[in-house]
Amino acid sequence: xxxxxxxxxxxxxxxxxxxxxxxxxxxxxxxxxxxxxxxxxxxxxxxxxxxxxxxxxxxxxxxxxxxxxxxxxxxxxxxxxxxxxxxxxxxxxxxxxxxxxxxxxxxxxxxxxxxxxxxxxxxxxxxxxxxxxxxxxxxxxxxxxxxxxxxxxxxxxxxxxxxxxxxxxxxxx
Length: 173
Ligand SMILES: O=C(O)/C(S)=C/c1c[nH]c2cc(Br)ccc12
Ligand SMILES: [Ca+2]
Known about the structure:
This protein has eight helices and two strands. Helix 3 packs parallel to helix 7, helix 4 (66-86) packs across helix 5 (96-105) and helix 4 (66-86) crosses helix 7 (131-151). The protein is mainly alpha-helical. It has helices at residues 2-14, 22-33, 46-56, 66-86, 96-105, 112-122, 131-151, 163-171, and strands spanning 93-95, 128-130. The structure holds (2Z)-3-(6-bromo-1H-indol-3-yl)-2-sulfanylprop-2-enoic acid (3SU) and calcium ion (CA). Calcium ion binds at residues 57, 59, 61, 63-65, 68.
């Protein structure tokens, strides 16, 4: 039942090519986000939607088909729940300390240096993280972990890449 409902929503967003482009994704995310007054954001940028597609685009079409879209939607749904949990002061953004806990709750184990890098990269001028930056950060973390694991066949935690392989990894993200 819910799947059918999802399919119709997807059909409406994707249009008759049944694939969602970055622009179409941005429109639907920004439409949904306006219904969540507790999520402070200027909305998702085209760039962050491109990254989300790069993360979820398993078949290399550069767009999202229905199952890729459902997978992304469920991740954002899970991650927005974590964000709201830490958005205690209802300002709609979280501070760098709350960000550490939120990233942890999302299942990422990082070190202090990485948490500082994330704050530098995603925080706004008040050193707080808006909702869209939070999602963009987790999308990127997930993409980079997954790309590493794809290269680390024997699972020994190290990979060996040529510069072009490195660029393949880092440019479509
Ligand atoms: O608050 C909720 O229960 C849900 S279902 C939230 C969301 C579920 N998908 C979302 C996508 C964006 Br963008 C923002 C909020 C949500
Ligand atoms: Ca695809």
